[in-house]
Amino acid sequence: MNKVPTAAASAETSQAQSLAASGARADDLAAAKRVLHQEADALGNLAGSLDDEFLKALDILAAVTGRVIVTGMGKSGHIARKIAATLASTGTPAQFVHPAEASHGDLGMVTSHDAVLALSNSGDAPELSDILGYARRWNIPVIGITMRPESALGTAADVTLVLPKTAEAGKIGHVPTTSTTMMLALGDALAVCLVERKGFSLEDFRELHPGGKLGQILVRVGNLMHVGVEVPLIGTDAPMSQALLIMTAKTFGCVGVTDTEGNLVGIVTDGDLRRHMGPDLLAERVGDVMTRGPLTIRANALAAEAVRVMNERAITSLFVVEGSKPAGIVRLHDCLKAGVA
């Protein structure tokens, strides 16, 4: 005869299940933290291990007149792809070549002007043998990243960057985790050092990243400003009737005022018109109505800075100057249309 569970028994079962689930979640968090701490420790060890070999590798990469050929098999190959992309996006031409495909014709992508950056934790990935042999045959410099300097890669490379001997994360201890993290970080270190050595600027970076949010953030005022005859300008001695015509024709809601030497000395806005409204306004001189010392910005400033200034001062246009002379005008609408916010 089956017993019907009592309310008390059901409550005990539910509580036990809840405690078990809670314990499992705590174990999961502990495991995750253990992995991250282990990888962080490995990166610390890697930083402490850097020596002249890293500088030699940097010298080779900086001297390349062709491309940096980054290669690796398996998980190392995925890291190699990312390193190649990082190098290319920071001014060092690079491309990933799959080592197995290299053995079937892609060696044609590698030239005598290139350098090879090869990744392999063990250093004995058989797929690397052909590309390493090709590099040796044509005197192409090779930089190896491996944990075993005595390996095939370690001995074939001109420069070997040795990863500290560290166990992979997790109880299995063989899943590529800690080793690939160190490879990735080492690739980042090489790329950033090359950026700083070559003087690669923010403007250079923007040129290589014109699309997406990053491109929008890095847009300069000079890329969006209106120039030449589009810029609304008038002299201080001109009558307000002429200023009103220019403001109406050029639709910026303002006109910049220049002195006899072409310096921007003031601005006339819709607000100035309202403040001086009267029967004699159109006959007055522009210099008597203008607001002196208008807000300005440089052409090489980020467009995001222009947006910030216009929002803070509740204005919709900003004159762009070179020295004290007007070079253009940028509108809030132009910035927002370009995706700058």
Strand and helix map with partners:
Blueprint: H1 7-49, H2 52-63, E1 68-72, H3 75-89, E2 94-96, H4 99-102, E3 115-119, H5 129-137, E4 142-146, H6 152-156, E5 159-162, H7 178-198, H8 202-207, H9 212-217, H10 221-224, E6 233-235, H11 240-250, E7 254-258, E8 264-269, H12 270-275, H13 286-289, E9 291-292, E10 296-298, H14 303-313, E11 317-322, E12 325-331, H15 332-337
Helix pairs in contact: 1-7, 2-7, 3-7
Q: Main β-sheet, in a few words?
A: 5 strands, parallel
The radius of gyration over CA amounts to 32 Å
Give the CA-based shape.
flat
- Point out poorly predicted stretches: none
Order of helices and strands: HHEHEHEHEHEHHHHEHEEHHEEHEEH
The helix/strand class is alpha/beta
Strand content: 15-25%
Arrangement of strands in the largest sheet = 2-1-3-4-5
Helix count equals 15
Average pLDDT confidence is 90
Helix percentage: 40-55%
The rounded distance between the terminal residues' Cα atoms is 73 Å
Count of individual beta strands:
12
